[in-house]
Amino acid sequence: MEQTLVIIKPDGVKRKLTGRIIQRFEDKNLLIKEMYQGIVTEAVAKEHYAHLQDKPFFPDLIAYMTSGPVVFLLLEGTDVIALVRQLLGATNVLNAAAGTIRGDFASSTTENIVHASDSKESAEVEIQRFFSHL
Ligand code: UDP
Fold this sequence. Notes:
42% helix; binds uridine-5'-diphosphate; kinase; ATP-binding; ATP binding
C-alpha cells in the first residue's frame, strides 16, 4: 500500500477545475484519504522545488505556486504513486497526452494544473511537508 501527495495548483483552483480533477481520481477508483484547501508560502514553495532552484524558470515557478489557494490531497492505494502520475500526464506540455489532466487542461509547462509525488521517497517527504498536522 502506498500514499502520494497531490496539489491542485493555483491555476487549477482559479479556473474552477478542482471538482473535475478530483473526479479523475475518483473515476480511477483511487482512495482520497485527506484533502484541504490552503496556500503554499514562498519558503515552502522554495523547499518543495529545491531540486529546480538553478533552472531559469524557478522564479516564475515560485511566483506561480504562491499566487493563490491550492488544494492538497492525500491518496492511498496499491501503486498509487505511479497511477496518479499517469493520470497527470507529462511535465512538458507538448508531451502531455490527451486524456491526461495536463493534456486536457494545460497549455503551459509551468502553469500545469497539478503536482503529484514522483517516487516513494518524494511522497514520504511531501506528505510530511503538507500533512504533518494530521
Ligand atoms: N516546470 C517549468 N518548466 C520546465 C519544467 C518544469 O515551469 O521546463 C515547472 C512545472 O510547473 C512543473 C514543476 O516545474 O510541474 C516541477 O517540475 P518537475 O520537473 O519536478 O516536474 P513534475 O514532477 O511536476 O512533472
